[in-house]
Amino acid sequence: MYNGRRVLYTSKEYIDETNIIDDLSKIMAKHTANINEIDYLYRYYKGEQPIRRRKKEIRPEICNKITENRANEIVSFKTGYLVGEPIQYVSQKSSVENSQSIEKLNAFLRDENKSSKDVELSDWQNIGGTAYRMILPEEQYTEESDFSPFNLITLDPRDAFVVYSARLGHKPMYCGYTYKLDDKIKVYCIYTHTEYFEIKGQTILRKERFEILKKDSNNLAMLPIIEYPLNKARLGYIELVEDLLNAINLFDSNRLDAVEQFVQSLLVLKNCELGTDENGNRITANDIREAGLIELVSIGDNRAEIQNLADQLDQSQNQTLKDDMYQTVLTIVGMPSQSNGSTSDSSNNGAVILKNGWQSAEARAKLIEPIWKECENEAIKVMLRICRDLTDIELKSSDISIKFTRRNYEDISTKSNVLVSLLNNPKVAPIDAYTVCGLFPDPEEACNRGLKYYEDNKTETTQVEETENTEIEETTENGTDITETVLDEV
């Protein structure tokens, strides 16, 4: 059982060509340990679990290996609950220019399919306890391009790392990712705040030797790789409950073994001999299996008997034990109960969220949000730096607010009533009503759009009323002549 990933630290005040090889050599032991653990947890998530290597000494021919892949269920739920709805970037300030720039930035993110890459990032977080995102400028971008000026890349955490300063504040000092050449030699692509290195790593006599292949400047002057840890300990959800998940797999396998052993129960021969066949050879158990029939002869007062040696498990008690283990797993990871296997519920959304463990799931998601936002803010700084160089966007990270939009449209009737009640109160500002109700991912934008619609509609209504009044007045002025004409005709 693992206990989270190791954080990589360096005691050096700066990193350059003179000390990068030495520092890389020192952190490799911890980084390799992280790689091995994440690789194990990823294979566990895919279903390659210890039960597959199960061995049985007694009756080894009956050895079922059942994988009830609850690890995949946990990761899928956690990812879907946190980032199943796209994360929104909204304006932090009431400014038309800021809102337009943020809308343009959101268009770039949609072009990069950020929502799907957030899902991939969250998957790695939940599996291995940490994840990495890389942001690089698009070399072919021009002002006339219809694509994003930057590339968002979700890195495999087994191939990426960020090294932090051991000094107060633990600021990131350098980062990198690896790939393998055709001859399986590793190449480390390292970024500092000012330089870029390509370093070859080759294992010689069980020690990895490094050699600088390329050196260049880092035009971004920022680290393009940002780490997204799930928590401070870099502890994934699978390792929290790995022992219980293994126990559930073993329990299911043994229970199926018991059913199979009951069907294939052993025969016990009491006070009888199998005798010999027509050739004088002693009859064996294999001969009985082929024939399917036994002739018994009682000897004296000892009556010959054949019995099945079998005992059936109490399945109801076993199911109680399994349900208890599974419920413990749900409690530890903060997942809702399935109400004894039934997902239907007549309660409204507001009531359901307070029972069956849904409140626990929401509480865990709220714990992750600040950590995610902190990392996302660093990613925004890199994106905005690229946008300032290649586009007309002049935003700062402080101009942008990050919104998680999950559960925005749950219990929508109650939220709508809150909005209407607050808007009807003359002492409540409209922006506060839009913010409190919780219907909108960007309350300020929704409020401004609503006020604009109201003013435009009010102007159109006024113009229509004025036109109708004018027509009525003209009709009234000519009404007497029309009436007299009609009367004359009659």
What does this structure look like?
The protein has 490 residues and is an alpha+beta fold. It has helices at 20-46, 70-83, 96-111, 114-128, 237-240, 242-263, 285-291, 315-333, 349-352, 358-390, 412-423, 430-437, 443-477, 479-489; strands spanning 8-10, 88-91, 130-137, 150-155, 160-165, 172-180, 186-191, 195-204, 207-217, 225-229, 266-270, 305-309, 400-403. It has three domains: 8-240, no CATH class; 248-363, no CATH class; 411-490. 46% of the residues lie in helices and 17% in strands. A hairpin with a 3-residue loop joins strand 7 and strand 8. The radius of gyration is 35 Å and the shape is flat.
Number of domains: 3
Low-confidence stretches: none
Number of extended strands: 13
Strand proportion? 15-25%
Q: What class would the helix/strand composition place it in?
A: alpha+beta
Main β-sheet description: 6 strands, mixed
Q: What order do the SSEs take from the amino end to the carboxyl end, as H and E?
A: EHHEHHEEEEEEEEHHEHEHHHEHHHH
Give helix % range.
40-55%
Q: What best-fitting shape do the alpha-carbon axes yield?
A: flat
Radius of gyration: 35 Å
Mean pLDDT: 83
Total count of helical runs of at least 4 residues = 14
Distance between the termini: 105 Å
Strand order of the largest sheet: 1-5-6-7-8-9
Keywords:
490 residues, alpha+beta, 3 domains, 6-stranded mixed sheet
Annotate the secondary structure layout.
Elements: E1 8-10, H1 20-46, H2 70-83, E2 88-91, H3 96-111, H4 114-128, E3 130-137, E4 150-155, E5 160-165, E6 172-180, E7 186-191, E8 195-204, E9 207-217, E10 225-229, H5 237-240, H6 242-263, E11 266-270, H7 285-291, E12 305-309, H8 315-333, H9 349-352, H10 358-390, E13 400-403, H11 412-423, H12 430-437, H13 443-477, H14 479-489
Parallel strand pairs: 1-5
Antiparallel strand pairs: 2-13, 3-4, 3-10, 5-6, 6-7, 7-8, 8-9, 11-12
